[in-house]
Design a protein that fits this description.
With about 270 residues, this protein is α+β, with helices and mostly antiparallel strands. It has a domain at about 10-15 and about 125-269. The protein has 6 helices and 12 strands. The protein has helices at about 15-20, 65-70, 135-140, 175-185, 215-225, 235-245; strands at about 10, 50, 55-60, 115-120, 125, 145-150, 160-165, 165-170, 195-200, 210-215, 260, 265-269. The strands form 2 sheets. The chain has a 9-stranded mixed sheet with strand order 1-8-7-6-9-10-5-11-12, covered by helices on one side. Strands 3-2-4 form a 3-stranded antiparallel sheet. The longest helix has 14 residues, at about 215-225. The N and C termini lie far apart (about 45 Å). The model is unreliable at about 1-15, about 20-30, about 75-115, about 250-260 and about 265-269 (pLDDT under 50).
């Protein structure tokens, strides 16, 4: 008997939807200055993000404010721009209120409100077949490009995100199928709930699997939205995916924690 398709759900986070749908400004119009959502200081184009679990929203963070939350990722206390080793869970602290004065933004203002989670910068290319054809079919993913996020708390399930012309659509996947894939590839058990994703690309005959920060997935979705043609995206969208994945290569800039694993959590080069 064919199992029922998993329920589809719209993207839960308005800010994430905005990131995926944000129009690109014309080349002649300078981009608006972005500011840190914690201390309001200007941030450079390349900056870190925080997840606000209560609002399911991504926030921009300057380097100083990102450092306030670096200790939430094991092995990175006081080391900006790094995450734990391959196969080690970069598990952020559980959501909850921050005690007044526990963490102060620059200038002495407490970082009050919900406990934020720093989006990791870990980028791991997983060699070999992580999700084979049978596994992909069992996950009921109707496209060739998707990312998978373990909900926080982890018991809340796993969602797949599908980039498209309209941004990102999310659907819940069968947890038993996901657990079977994780059992074969333990490195996936180290995905930081809510902040890291398994990015899988099967377009053009490729079989690439990466562990990436969640904001990487929405950057890719934003690029694809502007290039999408027809139902499947077209040749230009496929080329954009290829370029994006090439940019995640360990030799590319801003990937100091990038490594390649064999899918069993063993790092290479």
């Amino acid at each position: 008997m064919t199992p029922a398709a998993p329920p589809r759900a719209p993207l839960a986070a308005p800010a994430l939807r905005g990131l995926a749908r944000r129009p690109l400004p014309p080349a002649t119009v300078p981009a608006a200055e972005e500011r840190c959502d914690v201390c309001a200081q200007p941030v450079p184009e390349q900056h870190r993000h925080l997840l606000d679990p209560a609002a399911d929203t991504l926030l921009c963070a300057c380097q100083a404010c990102a450092l306030l939350f670096t200790a939430d990722i094991p092995g990175t206390a006081g080391i900006p721009g790094t995450t734990g080793t391959a196969g080690t869970a970069a598990t952020a602290a559980p959501a909850g209120p921050v005690a007044a004065g526990d963490r102060e933004a620059p200038g002495g203002r407490p970082a009050r409100g919900p406990r934020y989670r720093l989006i990791p910068q870990r980028r791991l290319r997983l060699a070999g077949t992580v999700i084979d054809d049978l596994g992909w079919a069992a996950l009921r993913v109707p496209v060739t490009l998707a990312f998978f996020v373990v909900a926080a708390p982890p018991g809340d399930g796993v969602e797949a995100g599908y980039p498209s012309a309209l941004g990102v659509t999310r659907a819940t996947v069968d947890r038993a199928v996901w657990d079977a894939i994780t059992a074969r590839h333990p490195v996936l058990g180290g995905l930081a709930p809510g902040t890291e994703a398994l990015l899988a690309d099967r377009s053009g005959g490729r079989r690439e699997h990466w562990i990436v920060p969640l904001d990487d997935c929405y950057r890719l979705a934003a690029v694809l939205r502007t290039q999408w043609r027809g139902f499947t995206g077209g040749a230009e969208a496929e080329e954009q995916v290829r370029r994006f994945l090439a940019g995640l290569d360990p030799s590319a800039p801003d990937t100091r924690s990038s490594q390649t694993t064999d899918g069993e959590g063993k790092a290479h080069g």
